Amino acid sequence: MVSEGLPLPMKPGGGGFPKVDPAAKSFFESIVPARPGVEVRPMFGHLAGFVHGNMFVGLFGAHVFVRLGPEEREKLMAEAGTSLFEPMPGRPMKEYVVMPSEWRSEPGRACVWASRSYEWAAKLPPKARGKAPRRAAKK
């Protein structure tokens, strides 16, 4: 089941990224696995969990999302209330799934998926830290 991304509450006046939802932030912090190599740092003006430089879980507005391989992603997308993560309308990040907000009352379910996300991302090649190379100007 593939559903469209959920609408995100944007900053007043439109434009920019959504405001951080304090309840979602607390929920996010409670489900990030305390595993080797996990680092929480800013991303999209919010927070994200990384392992070996690869993002595996994140917070965006009121939404908490996980990064999964194809089979696990399909399983999670079959759950009611999930959607592909779309930080900008029409621009989904295909490996990332937004978990249902209803799971805040069942953090164990979200922790299972956050752990699966960690396990998958930990197997990815490490990303080098540092600035991305600058793109050449178009002529």
Primary descriptors:
Yope Regulator, Chain: A, 3 helices, globular
Query: What spatial form do the alpha-carbon principal axes imply?
Result: globular
Order of helices and strands: HEEEEHEEH
Number of helices: 3
Helix content: 10-25%
Helices, strands, pairings?
Layout lengths: L21 H10 L6 E6 L2 E6 L2 E7 L2 E5 L2 H8 L5 E6 L2 E8 L8 H16 L17
Antiparallel strand pairs: 1-2, 2-3, 3-4, 4-6, 5-6
Folded structure, characterized:
With 139 residues, this protein is an alpha+beta fold. It has a single domain, classed as Yope Regulator, Chain: A, CATH 3.30.1460.30. It has 3 helices and 6 strands; from the N terminus they run H-E-E-E-E-H-E-E-H. A hairpin with a 2-residue loop joins strand 1 (38-43) and strand 2. It is globular, with a radius of gyration of 15 Å. It starts with 21 loop residues before the first helix and ends in a 17-residue tail after the last helix. The model is unreliable at 1-13 (pLDDT under 50).
In short:
The protein is α+β, with helices and mostly antiparallel strands. The chain is 24% helix and 27% strand.
